[in-house]
Amino acid sequence: MSLLLKNYCNNNIQPLIYKIYATALLIILFVINSNAQSQTIPAGSVIIDMGVLPQSINNAIKPYGLVYELVHDRYIPVIWSVNPLKAKDGIDFTVDGRDFSGGPFIISAPFLSDSNVLTTISAWQAKGVVTYTTLTDATVDVYQELHIWSQWVLDTDKGDIAQTYLDLADIPASAYRFGYPSSLTPCDDLFILPHADPTWADHGYLYDWNDSFSNGGSEGWIWAACHGVSALESLYNPSDPSQQLNFLSNKTGPATLNGSDYFENSLILWANHNDASNNPFSYAYPQDGYMQFMGVMDEATKNGSEQIYLPVNGTNSGWRSTTTIAVWDPLQSDVVAGSSPGEAALLAYGPGFGDPSRGSVMYQAGHQYKLTGRNPAPLADVISGIRAFLNFSFLAPTSKAPQITDNIVVPLSVRGGDTLNFDVDASSTAGNSYTFNWTSTCANGSFSGTSSTSNNSTTSFVTTPVLLPQQCTITVTVTDFCGRISYNSYILSIMPPANVITNRRITYRVKSN
User: Fold this and answer.
1) Using CA atoms, how far apart are residues 45 and 372, in angstroms rounded to an integer?
2) In what order do the strands lie in the sheet with 282-283?
3) Which pairing describes strands 403-406 and 445-452: parallel, antiparallel, or unpaired?
4) Cis bond leading into 54, ω under 30°?
5) Minimal CA–CA distance to 149: which of 120, 178, 169, 119?
6) How many DSSP H helices and E strands does the chain contain?
7) Alpha-carbon gap, residue 464 to 450, rounded angstroms
8) How far is it, in rounded angstroms, from Cα 121 to Cα 131?
9) What distance in Å separates the CA atoms of residue 438 and residue 424, rounded to the nearest whole number?
10) pLDDT in tens, 486-497
11) Where are the alpha helices (DSSP H) in 247-368?
12) For residues 253 and 234, what is the distance between their CA atoms, to the nearest angstrom?
C-alpha cells in the first residue's frame, strides 16, 4: 500500500504542484510584462502610500527619493498607479480593505527577492516613507511604469530654488547640474527656470532645444515659475521677431522691435496685472500624473513677483487649445474686469507650441514654495506645489529613453537543463546606437552566444538541472550614448524534471492487531 501511495504522489500530486507553481508564475510574469492599462500585482508587493494624511515632507516628498534610488540605482521598475476616473484626492485602488490615493507607487513582489532592494526600502522607511506589503493580489490602473529618471539642468540664475525641492526629496546632486540654456545638449532632459529675467542670448536656445529630434531639436522639457513665465512667453528673437518663446499661449500678432527683450502679445507681463484673488482656486484633471498631490497649493503660490499668469486681450489671444489649465482663479480681478480673456492660471502644462512631437512645458505660479522667511505658506500647500514639480520631472526622459522590444516570446517557466533564447531591439526618438548588457540572478545557468549590434542583441541562457523550483531574474540593460539606461527584467521559474522526486520523506506506521 505504501508503494501505491508513493507512485500516486509521484505521478499525480507532484506534477500537479509543479503545474500550479508554473501557472502562478506565468500569471505573475504576464502581468509584469503586459502593456495593458491595468495590471494585477501579486501578494507580497510593496505599495508606497502617497495619500497619507496629514502630508509631511517625510511621507509625501521623501518617497520620490526612494523611487529615484530604485529606478536609477537598483534598476527596479516602479509602477505609478492613477485611477483614470477618480475625483480630486479620490481613491486610486483598494487592497486588503485599505484605500490608496495620491498616485501611489508600487514595487511588484517578484522584484523584492533581491535583498538589496529590501534594504533600500527599509532605509527609506526609517526616513518616514510609508509603505504597505499586500496580503492578496490586487488589480491597479497603471499611469506609467517608471524605468528611467531625468537629468535636470537648473538655470544658473536662481536655480537653487528648485534645488531645495530636490534636496527635500533626498535626490542626489549627481542627478542635476546648473547652467544656462546655451549649455543644453540632447543628453539633458529637463530645464528648470524658477525665477529669471531671460534674454534671447541666454534663453533663446530653448526654442530649438524643445523641438523634435526630426527637426534638429532635443525634445527638451521646460519647467518655469514666477515672472520667468510671462517673460519667457514674451521673449522674442531680435534678429527674427517671428521666433518667440510663447510655448503655451497664442500670440495676437507678430512681435516687433521695441527696444525691450519682451513683446506683450501673448501673456500680460508680470508688472502689468494684478495678483490672484483671496478666493479658493479651482482644480481639474485629477487623473493627470502631474496632479497627483493631496489637497491644494493655493497659499504656496502667493509670493514673488508673479503669482498668476494671464493671456493678453486681442485677436486669437488666450491659452493654446493643447494647453491644460489644471489650477486657476475664476475670480481674478483682471479676468472679472475683462482685461484678460483668462483663464488666470496657476498651473498650466502642454506640448511646446502645441506640437506633440516637441517636449512638454509646465508653468507653476509663485516664486518659491517655502515654510519660512517672507510670505511662508502652510506645509500642506508647500508639499502640493513641490509634488507637482516632481511629478512633471518623472516623465521628461520617457520619449528619449531606449525603448526595448522583444522579438521572440520568452518562456516564463522552463525545466532545468533547458535553454532560453532572447532577442531584443532598442529604439528611441533620438535614434542613436546602444550598448547592451545581460545579467542574471540565476544560480542555475549561464549565458552563451551573446551577440549585439547598434540596436539589437541576442543571447541564450542555458539552465542547469534543479531539484526544487527556483525563481530568478534575467535583465537586459540598454544604454544610449548619453548614458540613459532602460532595462527589461524577465522573472523566470526553473523547474525540476517531471520525474524528479523532491527530497521529502513519507513515513507510514503499520499497526498490528
Assistant:
1) 38
2) 176-179, 152-155, 190-193, 221-225, 360-364, 345-351, 324-328, 282-283
3) unpaired
4) yes
5) 169
6) 10, 27
7) 18
8) 9
9) 11
10) 888 898 899 998
11) 333-337
12) 12
Rounded Cα–Cα distance for residues 306 and 364 (Å): 10
Q: E-assigned strands of 320-469?
A: 324-328, 345-351, 360-364, 403-406, 413-415, 419-427, 434-440, 445-452, 456-463
The predicted-structure confidence for 419-455, as pLDDT tens digits, reads as follows 999 999 999 887 778 999 999 988 889 999 999 999 9
Residue 324 to residue 357: CA distance in whole angstroms: 17
Region for 128 from its dihedrals, namely left if φ exceeds 0, alpha if ψ lies in -120 to 50, beta otherwise:
left
Distance CA 41, CA 38 (A): 10
Helices (H), 69-199: 115-125, 160-168
Query: Buried (b) or exposed (e) across 450-474, using 16+ Cβ within 10 A?
Result: eebeebbbbbbbebeebeebbbbbb
Which amino acid, residue 243? Answer: Q
User: pTM for this structure?
Assistant: 0.86
Rounded CA-CA distance 203/169 in Å is 28
Q: Which amino acid is at 249?
A: S
pLDDT category of residue 500 using cuts at 50, 70 and 90: low
Q: In whole angstroms, give the CA distance from residue 69 to residue 367.
A: 29
3-state DSSP call for residue 86?
Answer: coil
Four-point Cα dihedral 197, 198, 201, 207, nearest 10: -170
